[in-house]
Design a protein that fits this description.
The structure is a homodimer.
Chain A (H helix, E strand, L loop, with lengths): L6 E5 L18 H15 L3 E6 L28 E5 L10 H8 L3 E7 L1 H14 L3 E10 L3 E2 L5 E2 L1 H15 L2 E3 L1 H4 L4
Parallel strand pairs in A: 1-2, 1-4, 2-3, 4-5, 5-8
Antiparallel strand pairs in A: 6-7
Chain lengths: ~180, ~180
C-alpha cells in the first residue's frame, strides 16, 4: 500500500551546529522555517522523520555524549515520529531508513535541514537515486563558508546557491516554506 | 584480502556531454588529464573502472542507442577493466559496484569525470559514506553552468569550485593530475 502523504524529513537540526568552529553561516531563518513545516506536518498528522548525526569524528560538537548532539528546540521527535540516527552524511547509509520508507509505502519526501551542501545534499541525492520523489525546502536549509581547493574561500550564501542549483537540476523539486505549507 | 592498489574510477566520460544542450562548461583539460591518468593506471596494471551513464531520460544524448552514449576516445574499457553501467547519478545505486569492490578487496578509489557537481559528486559522496578512501582529481573533472533557484545563473567554474570545496571538506582528498601520477 502506498501512502500518498509526503513525509517531512529534517536533517541534523542539532545544537552542535551553533558552535563557532563551523564558521560563517547563511540563512538564519532556516530554524524558524523548519519549525513552521514541522508544526504543519504535526497538525495534519503526516509522517515526520527526524535525522540526527551521531558523529564519530573526535571532538565533533555533534558526537553522542556532547551537548551539541541534542536537537535544537522543537526538533526532537514526538511520539510516533521516526528518529533516524546516522554516522555519515547520507541518512540512507548505515540506517534502516530506506526499508522503513518502503514498508510504510512512503514515496514522497520533503527535506530540509543542515547543512545544504553536506548532509542535506547527500541525503537528497540518494533519496532521489533510490526512486523517492524529493522536494527540497530551500529557505529551511543553511550551510557554512568553506575553503576552496585553490586556497580561496566560498561564502555560505554562494555555496548554498550552487548546491541548490545542482539539486534542482537533477534531484529534487525545490520550493520555499510558504509553498510547502500549501502541500496536500 | 585487501588490494593495496587504488582503483581509478572514471565517471561518464561519454561523447553525449559534447552536445550543446548542456551549456557552457569549465576545464576543457579534463579529458586530456583523464587520459594521462588512465595511461598511468594501465601501465602499472592497477584496477580501472569505467562508469557509463545509460540515461532513461527521453531525448537524453546519454541514452543507450544514442551516439552520445559512447565513451569518449580512450575511455572505453580494455580487457580486464570493469564496465559499470548506471541509470542514476550514483555509480553505487542499481549496480554491483560496491559488491565487486568488496570482493576484490579494493578500498581506495581515485575518481574523476563528468560532471563535477552531479554524477562525480554523488558517486564520491556515496563511496566515502560506504567507507572507501576517496581521492578526487580536481583538474580531471568538469561541469556545466546552471540556473539558480532565484532565477539567476551560476557559471561552470564557480559551480565546480563550490562542489569541490564541499567534497574536500568532508568526502575526499582532492589533488591534481600531476600529483595522482605519483601515487603508489
Amino acid at each position: 500500500m502506498s501512502d500518498p502523504r509526503p513525509a517531512l524529513l529534517a536533517v541534523d537540526m542539532q545544537t552542535g551546529f551553533d558552535a563557532p568552529r563551523w564558521g560563517a553561516r547563511n540563512n538564519p531563518a532556516a530554524e524558524g522555517n523548519g519549525l513552521r513545516l514541522l508544526e504543519r506536518w504535526r497538525k495534519l498528522g503526516w509522517p515526520v522523520i527526524l535525522v540526527r548525526h551521531d558523529s564519530t569524528e573526535p571532538g565533533s560538537p555533534l558526537a553522542p555524549g556532547s551537548p551539541g548532539n541534542a536537537f535544537k528546540p522543537g526538533f526532537a521527535p514526538l511520539a510516533g515520529e521516526w528518529l533516524i540516527t546516522k554516522r555519515v552524511n547520507s541518512a540512507f547509509i548505515g540506517t534502516d531508513l530506506e526499508q522503513r520508507l518502503r514498508r510504510a509505502g512512503i514515496t514522497r519526501l520533503v527535506v530540509f535541514g543542515l547543512t545544504t551542501d553536506q548532509c542535506v545534499s547527500t541525503t537528497v541525492r540518494m533519496a532521489s537515486n533510490l526512486g523517492f520523489a524529493v522536494t527540497l525546502i530551500e529557505d529551511a536549509c543553511a550551510c557554512f563558508a568553506l575553503r576552496t581547493f585553490s586556497g580561496g574561500h566560498v561564502d555560505a550564501a554562494r555555496l548554498h546557491t550552487a548546491h541548490v542549483a545542482t539539486l534542482m537540476a537533477e534531484f529534487a523539486e525545490v520550493i520555499r516554506t510558504e509553498q510547502a505549507l500549501l502541500l496536500n
